[in-house]
Amino acid sequence: MNNKNKGRPLIVRGAKENNLRNIDVEIPRERLVVVTGVSGSGKSTLAHDIICREGQRRFVESLSPYARQYLGRMDRPQVETVEGLSPTIAIDQKTISRNPRSTVGTITEILDLLRLLYARLGTPHCPECGELIEGRSREQIVLHAWHHHSAKDVTICAPIVLERKGEYRKELEDLREQGFQRVRIDGEILRLSEEIVLARYERHTIEIVLDRVKLVDGKRGRFAEAVEKALSLGNGLVNLVIGDEATLFSSRLGCTSCSVTIPELEPRLFSFNSPLGACDRCDGLGRRRSPSEESMVKDPDLSIDDGALQLRKQGKVIRGLGIPWKILTDAMAEIRIDGSRPWKKLTQRARQFLLEGAASIGHKSDWPGLIQLSEVAYDLHGGRELERWMPYSPCRSCHGSRLQPAARSVLFKNRGIQEICDMTVEQATQFFATLILDDREALIGQSIFPEIGARLEFLDKVGLGYLAIGRSADTLSGGEAQRIRLASQLGSGLRGVLYVLDEPSIGLHASDNATMLEMLRGLRDKGNSLLVVEHDRETIESADHVIDIGPGAGIHGGELTGEGTVSQLRKSPRSVTGDYLSGRSEIAIPQQRRKAQGHLVVRGARMHNLNNIDVEIPLGCLVVISGVSGSGKSTLVQGILQPAVADHLELLTEPPGDHDDVEGLDEIDKMIRIDQSPIGRTPRSNSGTYTKVFDDIRDLFAKTPEARARGWKKGRFSFNVKGGRCEACEGAGVTTIGMQFMADIQVVCDECQGTRFNEETRTVRWRGHDVSEVLALSIDDAARLFEDVPQVFSTLDTLQKVGLGYVSLGQPSTTLSGGEAQRVKLATELRKRSTGKTLYILDEPTTGLHFADVQNLLNCLQALVERGNSVIVIEHCMDVIKQADHVIDLGPEGGAGGGRIVACGTPEEIIKTKGLTAQALKPEMTGVHKKVTQKGKKRGSGKGEPTDRFIIEGARQNNLKDVRVEIPAGEMTVITGPSGSGKSTLAFDILFSEGQRRYLESLSTYARRFLGRMDRALVDRVEGIAPAVAIDQRNRGSNPRSTVATSTEIYDYLRILFARAGEASCTTCDVPLESATPAVASRRILEERGEEPTLLLAPLNAPFPDLGSLQREGFARLRLNGSEVLRFDEINDSEMIENADQVDVVVDRLKPGKSGRARVAESVEECYRRGLDRLIVADASGQEVARYTRHLSCPSGHMMLTEELSPRLFSFNHHSGACSGCSGLGVLKQVDPRLLITDESQPLFSGAMEHRLGSWIGRRSSRVRKVIDAALEAHGFDPKSPVQELGEDGWNLILHGTGDQSYPVRYRTRRGSGRLRQVTGSTWEGLIQRVSAWHQRAGSPRWRRAIEDHLAIRPCPGCSGGRLKPELLAVRIEGKNISDLCQLTVSSALEFFNSLTLSGYRKEVAQQIHTEVASRLGFLEQVGLGYLGLDRATESLSGGESQRIRLATQIGNQLVGVLYVLDEPTIGLHPRDVDRLLDSLVSLKDQGNTLVVVEHDERTMNRADHIVDMGPGAGVEGGEVVAEGTPESLRNNTQSRTGDFLAGRERVYEISERRSPENGELTVVGARANNLKNLTVSFPKGVLTCVTGVSGSGKSSLVMDILARELATQLAGARPASAEHERLEGVEGFDGLGVIDQQPLGRTPSSNAATYTGLMTPMRGLYAKTALARLRGWGPGRFSFNVAGGRCETCEGKGGVLIEMHFLSDVWVKCDDCHGKRYESETLEARWKGHSIADVLEMDVRQARQVFDGIPAISSMLTALEDVGLGYLSLGQSATTLSGGEAQRVKLASELGRRSRGRKIYILDEPTTGLHFGDVKLLVKMLHRLVDRGDTVVVIEHDMDLVASADHVIDLGPDGGGAGGGIVAEGTPEEVAKCRKSYTGKALSESFKAAKKTSARKKSVKTKSGGK
Q1: Could you give the CA distance from residue 1081 to residue 1790 in angstroms, rounded to a whole number?
Q2: Which of 261, 460, 1290, 1587 has the most C-beta neighbours closer than 10 Å?
Q3: DSSP 1639
Q4: Cα separation of 51 and 47, whole Å?
Q5: What is the DSSP letter of 1010?
Q6: How far apart are CA 404 and CA 397, in angstroms?
Q7: Looking at residues 1407-1414, what average pLDDT do you find?
Q8: 710: which residues sit within 8 A by CB, 6+ positions away?
Q9: Could you give the CA distance from residue 1613 to residue 1252 in angstroms, rounded to a whole number?
Q10: 1611 near 1594, Cβ under 8 Å?
Q11: DSSP code of 985?
Q12: In Å, how far are 1121, 1131, 1152 from 1096, measured between CA atoms?
């Protein structure tokens, strides 16, 4: 790894986010860096909002667009540059869910693995009898139904989808095609003939309704048949529906003795968060609210009548339950219970009857009991009153396990999943470590057990071995939650990651903190960087580097006050942190401690882990509860004490936890809990509104003379209500411009200039300040202004005392830090009058607080206590503990080891004990601090000990043979070797898979759902791996809606730009559209009309309302047709209104200047209401003067946009913006007359349309033929004449019709009634319209394809190819609409943006977008794609262009420490483009990344730092590391075949005599597809022709889109629409076309080399002729593993059974019946030369060739397979396991193994893809064999070795895109090499020179050896 990359720091420049003041900072890499500073100074902004967010944003951008849409919006922070950034992972306490459904097992994903384990290896037992259960037979299901549901109607359903998400359109369509009529979806029976639309992200159950049978005699056979069919379709499941109830039966799992059926064993059965697995009673929570006798009986000394129970009589009902009291008295009467008798004197039987119901004592009554009635009432209605005496208790149904009985009855090693969850981490580790597994369990569990073990190990490592796996997350302490999160990161084993931690010491005791610091150092020492926001002294002093932000908070912060080592920080004069660390400032110990003024005593506390303790808490003191994390502090205070006090004060709350009593509650009359939650959720809340001081200030303004004169109350001075606020911004002061996925922009309101209030309100002033100016004052300035106003000053003075004087009075609460919000709350309490009996409770109040903030907090707390109140603080901070009057220390450990009182007393008394708190407190009390020990790496510059390699050990994936390899970090490594040797397996299946999987596991569980399953590789160890990104050649844009702009996200930014900064114009007159809010319209009317008589009119929409309704609304005048204004009594005829084109109602007649602003504003609002957001201003005569609309509209009234411009409207993929004509495609499939009438020299129905559609049209009985003949005759044409003789009029008649003219023809039709009927007379719409109608209505895909053969793609006439609606294309920026901009090339678009100048808020919008778009365009140009048009469809991009686009994205991300894995990046690239690509790769490496490139290109290897050569052969002969090292060392390694080729010891080809074309030419005339320049290109017959050229020059367009498709049409009768050209000449002489590519031979494991090459057919025929087969009458089909008969039906001929492993890799288990042989045992008895058919499939090609040596039909193909280098290949090897090169060679062998007549043409596109030099050499040999037997071969290729071996070369170019598409040179390779303009010529020339050197070297060696 290069030193310059290794020590490259993370550099942030120009950070201006929030309050940061344009700071620059450098953060050393691979170090523990602490960012500290006072609360609100900007620490979290720097660490999280800038560094963390930017790091995650850049890495997430490397993921697929599908995944990114679910990962949340990642805004770009306000910072100039962030350089040297690594993939970032945030670790904070918020990431742990506090949902009661979340447990330790779910957080760590251990439970997910356990669910998978029990679903795949669990053995089901009966929930009732406990016996092992198996599936039910059909007969057992029938008997059960007949026994239980006799004489009932039963609907038999076959479940095909059970509780799974999706739309299932394909499945429903398949059912329709199979003839099924009805389905049952989510309990509702629907007809398949109806349209069924399912919600995509909701769970659905879909069942096929097979039959409805009444179970009576005579129907048993029909019922049994339906059940059998359902079991077959439902994969062993059948659902019997009787009425509203449904019973699911399984042919696999059912108890025969108890008639119990359990569902299929799937992971969701064991999930308590799934309806399938959750306990019905508690809904999977394991607990539920349920009363007990203790909670329900309020006073046992009283009787029921006198109120003994919590449920008391209210009128005639039981309060809380809502049921009649009489029901209770009737139940009591049944067993003679006396309601007047005290509860404690009732018998046990009577009490049990009343509470638990009649069934509990065996009584026959239906009385359910008060407990059940209470539970039902709570489930139905809830209610805080019921909650008070219905505490949570373990569910009585599942006993706390959360699962339903079926899940609990599945056992693994005699333990249920709930038993494993009840174990602690330590116990579970021991259980799994001692498991003894059989072979099947070991195979299926090979990926499960290591995952479980690793997670348990790391939990134990971070000190959480005592936690139970099923422990609910809401009971975890903050420290426990933090360590669980850290454990998952320790387990990832990543390196090169930047971890950002927010206050990791929160919730941690000092002793726990030491453990946490050890973990942080462990992460650092693995080669990661840590950025920790922290205030803890020990953490700061343990740091390698410290950054101090300050000096104050808010506007007084945001500066860099100090950075460097701890020693340097101590010496920094501006650093507040340095002051405290050095001792210049300190939090002093109080001179004396307060004495208790009474006590609160908690007796017998037993909640959670509390050990039945008694706790005495002094009142009138500052009391701190301390102890290690998990010791029970929060349980004591928040679980018991706080609810008990609340209950005493009659506050509705949760009942207190398990305890005996709380004494001393009478001393408390008020309880307040103060935390750091925001004081408001919206920017409208601020410290002034929260403390109510703004109410007092508004009172002052309302009492001013100006306000009283106008009658204004205090509400006029509120920015939250209408009246005084600015309505343009609704009192916000800013207008928010939504930027979709970018950060929203807030622009100062134009109307109020950010003051929030309207102009009139601001005229009222108090002591020279209007209300907006007062809000802008700091609290310090406001205190001086209101110094003599006691009610205001007292609050402001308190805010000053708590250290908030710098905060402005109107500063939004959302911008306050947690510490600032806490102090606002404390100030609010301090300003109130104290009773002296208030109890304040604070939990970890120092969270996020600096030493200085802690001092301010303690001052506030001491002030509260001085007023006689009591303060209880849960805290670990020693500065708070040492200031306490009394300390209660719990412990001594966490979890089960805690819950006891370790010590209590004053701090001085505490330090005399031996507890962990005492040890940590003593240095603070004595002032003698131990020096923090630094461990791990040497600290300093960030260039410490290197972590310089990735280590892979024991790689066994696919064909790898226990490979061990080391990949240098920070360098470019090339992995090469023969095709199929294991290169891609090593690079992608191991390196990439592990790197990305480990990083993605750090993301949220929600996010990971959309990222695809990342399987764990089959490898023993992968160490030092970095987060990985794959850059491959797959062109993912097969969708015509995908373009260069959309795939690079440039279009997304353009959509925002045009929506927010575009100028809309009228589509009719091209005048800019205008809009006006009522306030703006009012102001303009006042300014422009002044004292002029003015009419304000509201336009009405047709149909116009009648006069009566308008009069009732209060109107008196109308204006008709834009001129005449009439009173209603002047309108005599209602037809005047009905016949009018325009009607406007007069809302007001006024002189604006004289009438005043209020009247004008009111009239404008009314106009907008009545005129649907439109307003017309006219003079007194009615002549229009101006027009205003709330929405953008034309000033002349031509058009109005009905909704605000938004990015969504500019998406051609959304219905609201897409052109309605083409649905956003920009093109339409239209009938092409040339494709319809293909031969004009023939009559229309006798040869002019020689195709399938023509045959349909030309039927003598068809309406179309009859009406065309009639129309031609009626207009004087002869229908039998050739089409070309009909002239233009006849041509138009046939194609475009004759309008409404009818012709007397008789024909039969089904239109209308649906019945076949005779019709006379028809019009003729034209052939184009008729074929288009057929296309739209085509129901059959085959019929649709037949019609589409005659359609051509043409620009949409509605949008002219712009894809959007006309009104959106009229939105422009500097004269260009969004479509115009997308038509530019990358280079032109970059120039446009660099010269773009906008003003006002548009400039602010464009700035942010310009940065994003310009960077993307710049990087595209950097990788040589400046010629690409932004609207270029991605499906038309070459492989090289696609890859370079993705490469440009990665270069633009500028990440550091990433592992980039590239698969054959030079594929599709010309040698000229290869150099450019390699420059980009080196640039990516130089940023500090590692590159692993799977490659065979010599140039790439020469520029690599390290090469790993795999081999020595392919498949089973490969999978080993043959050689590794630098390129030079590989050249010198004679054991490496790659080295032989690199060194020139071996070459791909030998220069030989070229073939001369003697059989004519195949010529493409007028090729114009894509960028081809009307070329005429000739391909010589009978030779090897190579078409080459730079990437994007038009090779694929010429060969694949024109030549291959046209040949397929003419030779094979196929109709793939060939790309644009005139004609193809010289096809005669060919009788076949072969397109040989690297696509897989088959998509399923059933396909293999034997089936593809046709070998299986003669082999099966051979076995069918054996004596045994003839004796038993077996045909060839008996020996096929793809059809029933001879195959093994258990595995369906696959040889194995697939075990789906949910989120892990699926496992194939060898079939137990056939043991992997695929066939049943009888079939295997048939043998040929002692071998069964299964034995033959297991042979490799060489072995099989020997066995079948005398059978030409088989041996010839086997010889061909061996000749192409596949002798090692097993005949039965699945096609899905073959590499691309192997698949290609199988196809070549398939051709070579057949007899040839020398009249076939073969076309290959980039056949050297994935091929090693040796493979290319073999390929060249095979291609020449095809040519030698008389065939023609055309190859698209860039590999110069193959090009040099060709007979003829066609070089296209000279460049890519618009600069390409021409012929640069053609001829023999030697002739092309001489062309100076040809890039190919230059490369060939170099290749020939190298070949000559090799030949000379060989001759020299031969000469020397001969001389000897």
Answers
A1: 80
A2: 1587
A3: S
A4: 5
A5: T
A6: 8
A7: 80
A8: none
A9: 11
A10: no
A11: I
A12: 16, 20, 10
